[in-house]
């Protein structure tokens, strides 16, 4: 999946329209046809591009990214007020 594909999905999500599915590239149409819940989620505003980007990362990369965010959250939670 390319950046253009992800952009197409984001546009579809912004329009929240089934018509935008009709103008999607053929391989995006195939994905959305195979996974109708994904198409429905995109129409409701779920950032499908972000989900697809995350799925392109390995499990260990996603765990590291999550741990980094969790560590930052804990530092903020434990920070003293100014």
Detail the topology: elements first, then pairings.
Elements: H1 3-15, H2 19-22, H3 26-34, H4 36-43, H5 48-56, H6 59-78
Helix pairs in contact: 1-5, 3-4
Give your account of this protein's structure.
There is one protein chain. The protein is mostly helical. It has one domain. Helices cover 77% and strands 0% of the residues. It is elongated and about 50 Å long.
Total helices: the number is 6
Give the helix level as a range of percent. over 70%
Oligomerization category of the chains in this entry: single chain
Q: Estimate the global geometry from the Cα principal axes.
A: elongated
Which structural class matches the secondary elements?
mainly alpha
End-to-end distance, in Å? 45 Å
| Radius of gyration, whole Å | 17 Å
The residue-averaged pLDDT reads: 77
Number of domains: 1
Elements, N to C (H/E): HHHHHH
* Largest β sheet strand count, sense and barrel closure: none
Number of strands: 0
What percentage of amino acids are in beta strands?
Answer: under 5%
Low-confidence stretches: 18-22
């Amino acid at each position: 999946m390319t950046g253009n594909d992800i952009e197409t999905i984001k546009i579809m999500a912004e329009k929240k329209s089934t018509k935008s599915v009709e103008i999607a590239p053929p391989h995006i149409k195939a994905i959305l046809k195979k996974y109708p819940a994904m198409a429905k989620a995109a129409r409701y505003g779920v950032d499908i591009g972000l989900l697809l980007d995350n799925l392109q990362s390995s499990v260990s990369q996603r765990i590291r990214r999550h741990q980094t965010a969790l560590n930052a959250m804990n530092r903020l939670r434990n920070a003293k007020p100014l």
